Amino acid sequence: MKNMTCYDLHSHSTASDGSLEPSQLVARAIDKGVDVLALTDHDGTEGIAAAQQAAQGSDLRLIAGVEISVTWAKGTVHIVGLNIDPENDVLQQGLSSMRDFRVGRAEEMASRLEKAGISGALEGAKKYASEVMLGRLHFAKFLVEHGHAKDISDVFKRYLVRNKPGYVPGDWASLTDAVHWITAAGGQAVIAHPARYKMTATKRRRLITDFKDVGGVGFEVVSGRQHPEEVKALAKLAQQFELLASCGSDFHTPDNTWVELGDLAALPESCTPIWSVF
Ligand code: AMP
Ligand code: MN
Ligand code: MN
Ligand code: MN
Fold it and tell me: How far apart (Å, rounded) are the C-alpha atoms in residues 27 and 25?
């Protein structure tokens, strides 16, 4: 039985580090009962046209989105933009600077891995990536394929995070820039998966304060498989800060069986959903 609109406002395709083509992602979302899907690839919008085309003629509403990598307080946070105009120049110029950084970072990652005795990582990672975006998950797949770790989560821990051989610090957009690009493109900026950053509660409040100050309008109260207590705490924060609540699976691949498109807890009653401004 289905009586509520199913929103999933965070997902990835092969235009970043997801494993489904945009059209396959849309087909799967329809199959899983999603009514409104946002495609939010990392630092790029190349998948949106194909996703929109795939959604045409179906009951699924496709929201054009993006997930921008941001450096804040020396760490990385992710800001999702929803309802953006992918053609917007300010946004595209910003995203193109991020793409340039990714190219250099990938080369540096490969050279650090080389020094750790692992050769061919750049070519190997590229095999898993589209032309537009090369990220750590592509390197992770290469490293697993070559037996350097047993699975993706293991490979991140051992190679791709701070103080590990393949790690290169991010030099991403500022919070101000990311929100500006999204807003300039007519979209709404929300903080992605706020519970996933290793931050104290105080620091999280500081992030939310800074974010709101520069024009951010909400954050993900529900993200993927999340503990109900965490959802409750985030809902409370959203209310305190008078910010809108978003929800998204952060789906990357059908191989990850515990994250599925549209498989999300309902937003708590106290929340004002982000779609109230769509
Ligand atoms: P990047 O933007 O290239 O630094 O890569 C970040 C992406 O790597 C995230 O969006 C995830 O898809 C993936 N990722 C990061 N940490 C992990 C992890 N521990 N396990 C699996 N995937 C991860
Ligand atoms: Mn990702
Ligand atoms: Mn993210
Ligand atoms: Mn994501």
Answer: 5
Residue 38 class from Cβ within 10 Å (0-12 exposed, 13-18 middle, 19+ buried)?
A: buried
Total H helices, total E strands in the chain: 9, 7
The model's pLDDT over 151-194, given as tens digits with 9 standing for 90+, comes to 999 999 999 999 999 999 999 999 999 999 999 999 999 999 99
12 Cα–ligand 4 center, Å: 6
176 closest CA partner among 278, 90, 241? 90
Ligand 1 centroid–CA 176 distance in Å is 23
Which residues have CB under 8 Å from 69's CB, separation 6+? 42, 43, 76, 78, 98, 170, 172, 173
Atom of ligand 1 nearest to the CA of 67: 10
Please work out whether the CB of residue 153 comes within 6 Å of at least one atom of ligand 1.
Answer: yes
For 48-65, the DSSP string reads: HHHHHHHHTTSSPEEEEE
Is there an atom of ligand 1 within 6 Å of 172 CB? no
Closest ligand relative to 138 C-alpha: 1
Both structure tokens of 55: 């959604």
Instruction: Please state the pTM of the whole predicted model.
Output: 0.98
With a 6 Å cutoff on the Cβ, whether 141 touches ligand 1 is no
Q: Which of 4, 18, 14, 80 is nearest to 47 (CA)?
A: 14
CA 98 from centre of chain:
14
